[in-house]
Write a structure and sequence with these properties.
Length: about 230
């Protein structure tokens, strides 16, 4: 398993895909990547969130976020393509907040491009997520995503209210990538948060299963061209 940072295959088709690998080096083949995200403890004060190391809060919105990446630069330098085959987020534990008057929104993403946090905030407030209709993010750039809306409940009593998932959905293209970095994001939003509000979220881990393979030169170059256009 390869850690991320805080930060014989079928022949290629005309549309692109892994071709038979005979001498493309030790980097090719099945690869499982993982990236750990620290637990979140956040307190609202002075109109902004004070958060645990590894997380960031802003003074311009109610969103809290984590940003990291999987380093794929070695693959790109060797002319290899990353083909995602599956992804998940492991987050055993509880989500809690002292403010149970509004839903908590939790958004997790693996992206080929670096995302703007304020644009993600704007999308969430409008009821959308990156890569879907009414957003400026190209669908193919979102490899995997998961959205959850959580509501506070009163069945289990504690010092802060435990939030349980009321609705959830997966999205993303699963598109092959030649990007040097695959960006990993966790966003937590408590709309209208007030001073003295608190949020806690468990430590988590992104897991990305891939096949790293050589493909036809034309398909590889077209992917690189597309990535450049979308990040410029």
């Amino acid at each position: 398993m390869e850690e991320g940072r805080i930060q014989e295959s079928p022949e290629s088709s005309p549309q692109g895909g892994p071709k038979a690998m005979t001498s493309v080096g030790a980097l090719s083949g099945e690869r499982m990547r993982s990236l750990m995200v620290p637990a979140l403890t956040a307190t609202r004060a002075g109109g902004k969130w004070t958060v645990a190391p590894g997380w960031l809060g802003t003074a311009t919105s109610d969103i809290i976020f984590f940003e990291g990446y999987f380093d794929c630069s070695g693959y790109t330098k060797d002319g290899l393509t990353v083909f995602p085959t599956g992804a998940t987020l492991q987050d055993p534990g509880m989500y809690t907040s002292s403010n149970d008057a509004v839903p908590m929104q939790v958004l997790d993403i693996i992206s080929q491009v670096q995302l703007d946090r304020e644009q993600v905030y704007t999308d969430l407030i409008a009821g959308a997520v990156p890569g879907m209709l009414a957003t400026d993010t190209d669908y193919t750039q979102i490899i995997w995503g998961q959205y959850r809306m959580m509501l506070g409940q009163a069945t289990f009593q504690s010092a802060t209210t435990q939030f349980l998932t009321a609705s959830s959905g997966l999205f993303g293209s699963g598109s092959p990538s030649t990007a040097e970095k695959l960006w990993v994001y966790r966003y937590i939003l408590l709309p209208g948060a007030a001073d003295a509000d608190t949020i806690r979220a468990p430590a988590s881990r992104f897991v990305l299963d891939t096949i790293v393979a050589d493909e036809e030169e034309k398909a590889f170059l077209m992917r690189q061209k597309r990535s450049y256009e979308l990040t410029s």
